Amino acid sequence: MKESVPTFEWNRGLTTGLIRIDEQHRRLFDTINKLVSMHKTDAGVDEIKMVLDELRRYAAVHFKDEEDLMAAHSVSARIQHAQLRAHEEFIHYIDRTSALVTANPDIVINLLLVFLLKWLVQHVAGIDLAMAKEIAVALPEKALEETAGSETAGNASLLESMNDVYDELGGRAFDILEMSLRLEQEIACRKLAEQELMVSEARFHALIDYAFHWEYWEGADGHIQYMSPSCERITGYSAAEFIANPELIYDIINPDDLHLMEAHRRSNTVCEEGEEEIEYRIVKKNGAPGWIAHSCNTIYTQTGEFLGRRGCNRDRTGRHKRDDYLRLAETVFKSVNDAVLVTDQSNRIVAANPSFTTVTGYTEEEMLGKDPSLLSDGKMESETAKDMWQQLHATGRWQGEIMNRRKSGEFYVAWVSINSVLDAKGELSNYVAVFSDISERKINEKRMQYLAHYDLLTDLPNRALLADRLQQALIKARRDNELLALMFVDLDKFKSINDTYGHYVGDLLLKEVAKRLKCCIRESDTAARIGGDEFIVLLPSIQVEKDAVTVAEKILEEVTKPCDLAGNDVHIGVSIGIAIYPIDGKNSESLMTNADAAMYQAKHGGGPSIVSYGEIG
After folding, report:
1. Residues 476, 420 share a domain
2. N or C: which end of the chain has fewer CB within 10 A?
């Protein structure tokens, strides 16, 4: 349950005697009390922000009226300065409250609402009454008695001191809430970074511990910091032995080949590039000879500090025992993240790894002996299946996207790679399919494609997609000897709409204009938003220039109709510039430039209007 926030009702003790000012004070109190009530009833963030916007707009109107009164009645400079400062502070506090609510919908704003109420009481009872006294408006006799003598020069100084105190208290309250919000965000980021680091380390060890090659890290002091388990399989020496004796890496090298390693370590180019391999002979722990292919990288920090070397040794002796190889293969088979499915030459499943169960929901036991087609969605096109088998028979491999279905019935997109396996005689023995769920990636790709070509606010094509459509339309117009029209559509005085009603209403207006534009054009035409309050309409394949003017007149008529946006009756004007291919330009650049010039000519005409480039060219 939310902590109770007191309301403060208007009372005669706050009357200044200035009828319009008193009415405005009463409405300000009512608006803040409305916010208090909304806070108690857990109103949504959007609702609270709308009322905060309303409070800000009305406060600005009220403060302007007070400032005009002071100027008209020659109120003292000290009172005027105090009023202007107080007005700026109150607007600033409203903006910070709105910003906090936006950044964190769960933030407790009861303290801020109490502060706004008390600030308003102090302001009205103090500086506003002092202002009213100097204006010398006829106040009720009782009010005159109550305020008589209270606005002396000394009291004006006291009012300024009180303003300073409230300013400091308000600033501290907002600073504490903003600092708390930043702290929460920083803690969340740190936790996320820690989780990502843990996952990264787990992935590193999952990969490097099962790497076929012998990997190691040598610190700047020459000590071994990490030695992969593969070293023992290749040399007979354990990782612990190498870590205990860093020189063992060089001690196992055949004395006749030791100079190769020494030259390799001296070569900064080789070490920094890290791709060139050297081969040398080793003596294993059991005395048997072997061959190693060695490569290494020097590791530096971003500031150039040397951290050590990463080395990779590959066994080239070819004398691995079959069971070692099978054991390693089994480990890889079970540890990879991708699903792996093995079938016999008759395409019957003979093995599946744990990731297969994770992806499909089927266990290996459930699928043994069955056809992999059981995993598909049942709608795989015959041409796709035919192509897959033709490639497998011809090249021994195939890869592509397939729509599959999990055991639960859920569909997903899988990226599948299938390879044929031949036995020692070169005859087909198995098929191995490796696949992963790429549904999320496909969704992200589709979204990225949309973001790259459409305006998020209006869902109209953006500048990039417009440029492509214009280019295609020009190609067709040249080929078929047709006309096309390009219109620049600019909203008149859109900034004043934002300033008067707020950006929320401004965004609603842009959406409505986009909707009306689409209603005025053909399906083959394009209406695009290229930024701010600027739109472009592309009309391919028109018969005469008059066709474009007709569409422009329809757009002007529709767009200038009143709009009811969030309870506000909004009117907007529009200026339209038209350029015709090939009369006013033969390429996209000239058409855009000339349509823009015509639009500016229309805008300077003093009202909503349409201008063709031919009228000014």
Report:
1. no
2. N
Domain range holding 524? Answer: 454-616
- Rounded-to-integer distance, Cα 6 and Cα 11, Å: 15
Cβ–Cβ under 8 Å, residues 554 and 495: no
Q: Which two tokens stand for residue 601?
A: 């000519």
Residue 333's pLDDT is what?
79
- What is the C-alpha separation between 363 and 407, in angstroms, rounded? 10
Same domain, 267 and 151: no
Cα 571 to Cα 575: distance, rounded to the nearest angstrom: 14
Residue type, 433: A
The helix/strand/coil state of 309 is strand
Instruction: Examine the domain organization and report whether 319 and 386 are in the same domain.
Output: no
Q: Is-contact 400 384, C-beta < 8 A? A: yes
Peptide bond between residue 140 and the one before it cis (omega within 30 degrees of 0)? no
Q: Count of residues for the chain?
A: 617
Residue 294's CB is within 10 A of a number of other CB atoms, namely 20
Q: What does the pLDDT look like over 428-447, one tens digit per residue?
A: 999 999 988 888 888 888 88
Helix %, strand %, coil % of the chain (to 5): 55, 20, 25
In this prediction, residue 21 has a pLDDT band, given cuts at 50, 70 and 90, of confident
Question: What integer pLDDT is reported at residue 16 of this predicted model?
Answer: 84
Calpha distance 250→230 (Å, rounded): 17
* Interhelix angle 45-72/19-40, nearest 10 degrees: 160
Q: What's the number of domains the chain is made of?
A: 4
Same domain, 247 and 396: no
25, 131 contact by CB (below 8 A): no
CATH no. for residue 246?
Answer: 3.30.450.20
pLDDT at residue 162, as a whole number: 46
State whether residue 100 is helix, strand or coil.
Answer: helix
pTM of structure: 0.40
Give me the residue label for tokens 């030791």: 258
Q: Are residues 612 and 548 in the same domain?
A: yes
Q: DSSP letter string over 588-614?
A: HHHHHHHHHHHHHHHHTTTSSEEEEHH
Closest CA to 608 of 472, 523, 498, 513: 513
Handedness of CA 361, 367, 373, 379 (dihedral sign): negative
* 568 membership: H or E segment, kind and range: strand 568-570
